[in-house]
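Reviewer comment 2.1 asked that we show a complete input and output for one of the modelled complexes. We chose the FE2/S2 (inorganic) cluster case, as it is the one discussed in the main text.
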Amino acid sequence: MDVTLTIDNREVTVPAGTLIVEAARRIGIEIPVFCYHPKMLPVGMCRMCLVTVGLPVVNRETGRPEVDAAGQRVIRWLPKPVTACTEPVSEGMVVITDSAQVAADRKGILEFLLTSHPLDCPICDKGGECPLQDLTYRHSPGVSRFDIASKYHAAKAYPLGDLIVLDRERCILCARCTRFQQEIADDPVLAIENRGRDAMIVSYSEPAFNSHYSGNTTDICPVGALTTRDFRFHARPWELEHTASVCNHCGVGCNIVLDTRLGRIVRVMPRQNELVNEVWICDKGRFAHHFHASSQRLTVPLMRQGGRMVEVSWDEALQHVATRLRAICEQHGAEAIGGIAGARLPNEDLYLFQKLLRQVIGTPNVDYRVGLSAGFEDDIVAEVGVACGTDLGRVGCGTAILVLGSDLDEEAPILYLRVAGAARHGATLINAGGRATKLDQRATHVLRYRYGSATHLVLGLLHVVLHETNEQGRALTGNEIVPGRVRGLAELRAHVSEWTPERVATISGVPAEAIRAAAHAFAAAQNGIIIYGGEAGNHPALRRAIANLAIVTGFVGRPNNGVIAVLAHANSRGAEDLGIVPHRLPGYAPAERHGLNATEMVQGGVRALLVAGADPFAISARQVNLEFLVVQELFMSATAQQADVVLPAVAPGERSGSYTNLERRVQYFHPALLPPGMARPDWSILRHLAVLLGAGGWDYATPAAVFEEMARTIPLYANMSYERLTQPVEISRHMAHYIYAGMSYQSEAYEGLQWPTLAEQAMHTFVLEWQAPPPDPPTRGVVLVAPRVLYDGGTLLGQTQLLASHVVTSHVAVSPQDAAVWGLADGQRVRVAVCAREIALPCRVNPALPTGVIAIPRNLANNVAEMLLGEGQLFSPAGLIVEKQQGS
Amino acid sequence: MTSQAFYEELQGVLKKYPVKQSAVLEALYILQRDKNYLSDEDIHTAAEALEMTVTEVQAIVGFYSLFRRQPTGKYLIQVCTDLPCALRGADAFYRRLCERLGLPPEGGTTADGLFTVEEVVCLAACDRAPVAQINLQYFEHLTDQAMDAVIARLREQG
Ligand code: SF4
Ligand code: SF4
Ligand code: FES
Ligand code: FES
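Response of the prediction step:
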């Protein structure tokens, strides 16, 4: 229902429930605020937004508004000013924001606030983009009547944690930071302690201010009270140049601004995209930019000569590569050559990479999946992915979200915020995983399955959906599934009939009733989203079961319905889309000739290997058994050290390109910096190589030209162009005013474009294929899992000194129950052995783990988990030995 | 109090509340009851028992003058010196009280460990100022003589 009111004599119609401050913003009237933030519940703490409000007088008998002799509505003015940030509008309300009274109120509030504010703007990082500074200029009395000698003083550089510094004098106690941590980040580690003049922001958690999202509080702090150690005293806001970019640290694809000064990144800020990251980024995205400016960067092509790496020109290096590849090809055939590209490379580079290998060299050996992700893929999202127009930021009641085997807070932090936000707004949230994760606290259903039984669990859910009815006796299958469009329903029903919740319970350890309740709750929703990740395993039957569940519940082909795969890297989705796997071509077309996968290539399946932005030899200390190895890299990685030719590549901030995020949103990023030394973008290196190998038509001058070809040749990207990816967002969806997002400038806002799934085509027929689940996991013994953590031992992250103490060190996490049985305490060394491999690591007792599960995070220093588990293994096979190391 | 005794008592308390966290005031009160202040360990105990962060618990402790983080004298004398009380001379009354007890003007604990004196904000008895709260009891319309009498009586009780 809409409500019409008058603000400063102008009429405005807004939905009922809108706050006065928001209604005013609609017609361009800015009511000053400090504590109010559109993403959080209003609290009315600062009183800056005071306005005068009148309500129409209603005749009690007729129920109509009273009118005076002149036919004007009679208004009863409220006796005191009202906070516009807490007051919802009502029909006929009259609001005044520009009177002498309101001006006096604002003056009073500011005068009062400034009694405890140091006004040290000249040395304050916020100076120049500070709401308090600006509102003081605009609304304050200019001169204070308070005695300067009795001004309040407090700690100036109090470390709230090791990333964020608090200036207690500058704090105006608006509680934006504490509310963000509590309402949005789900890490209530900041609070206001004491009362009145003694009130102050504190954090007593250990380590202090322990949250993946802490940097956001510095953006929304309306004064310079919170600053990051990264930016503090490094530049003045007006000296910065701003470049719209996209974070390259995980698959969420948060939109960011690279703020540069004198050719260096001094600050990374969130850039609003309501469909991806709203106005937030995680601390990894914010702080881990230092790899760009690292002195360790490769800047000159290197070639191995007489056992030593020597600097050479690009011409010499590329000629040599071309000559060697040609020779190997002639002697052993094209299939003796293979390529491994990393999923951090942008789309343009990945596209050319596979084109070079498949079309120019003529080999099918292409892969992007190394280490524990070897063999991991997602092939269901192309059919049943979340439909275009999905906006997790706006779902709530009526939507059910099933998270399966993913620790979002660690793997895709901003997706965590969005899923938790959906739950806060009433969505049904089913968190199914092998261990307790942070999302449990928001979940309506927690299903704790035995590692290795995720497929069985989904079959149990399918059984309930296909064989049970709801309380009204209606089927649980979605009304949306048009019978004519779905094949194999009867067969699937027959197949899952034996997978009763009771049977699944014995295999998975999840109580039958919990499976039933979750299935009913999921199916009862109007919209359903399934988010699955690596801890669910990587069995084809799992993916099939997930797709089947989405189809039979009707949660496909409509916005806010479908599947999201939580893949590891910034452009893993792009790598899947563009066929950087040995069995698929770009656009999910099956390859006629299947090539070798990364593991096979690394284990001697090829004679020559091209590696771009990947480090396949970091994991296996294996002998490099290759005749020729070429590596395109930013750093001298373990693989680069073994290479015959090392080609320096440019980092994301130094170039343009596009990434496809885990919701299939293709997003463009601009270049912000010049590359160091002679480094070149990967796409350009590949182009030169192709030309030297005699390819015709490889005359791409820019990534734009590559993207045009992609749009022309790959139906998924058919309607895309850089121009369309960077279409300015309509202003009503764009609120990144500095008061809310912390920047003095209005950053560019784009929303990118999602490619449509098959389910969205009206003519698509769904085939409910049956695949038998993997064997039941053992119900006894110990299993080793390798979860992903945000602050892992990755090379890029390792270049950021500020985060060094956050990087997870090698350890083995053990449940308290097991620790008691094995006689282990924190810090003691544990010997873990599996097959012929063994390792000793310090122990960390972790109550999030169930009995019988030990965890070693993947991708830590020395790749300990990878070493133990081996390529593509998500859990340990049977025969794991865990014991306290003697003498410890 | 032993942690086992605390947990046992807490079980009964928890029954009264829809969510654990709502019991925080009562839990802290129990932890403080015997020794009149909350140690760091108590804060951690409460946080763990109620599934809250230490920061959240400490913020609540800091908000209520009922909770203390330092040991006090046997009798805790809290005098309101907020504006309405100050208008009735409570601030001067407070300073004189400190002086007579041999304490610095901002208050403190007497050498015999019997009294701790401190200023607090509104005790919700503004119309009966000056007012002091001694442990859990209110003393209103105070004068220096009346206060001395109270102190003498408490000294006798020891
Ligand atoms: S630190 Fe900043 S955001 Fe937090 S309460 Fe103080 S002024 Fe507000
Ligand atoms: S959530 Fe992912 S994409 Fe977003 S800022 Fe963090 S690392 Fe970058
Ligand atoms: S009280 Fe309205 S913005 Fe603070
Ligand atoms: S101001 Fe002293 S009791 Fe209220």
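The two ends of chain A are 69 Å apart (CA to CA). We note this here for comparison with the apo prediction described in Section 3.2.
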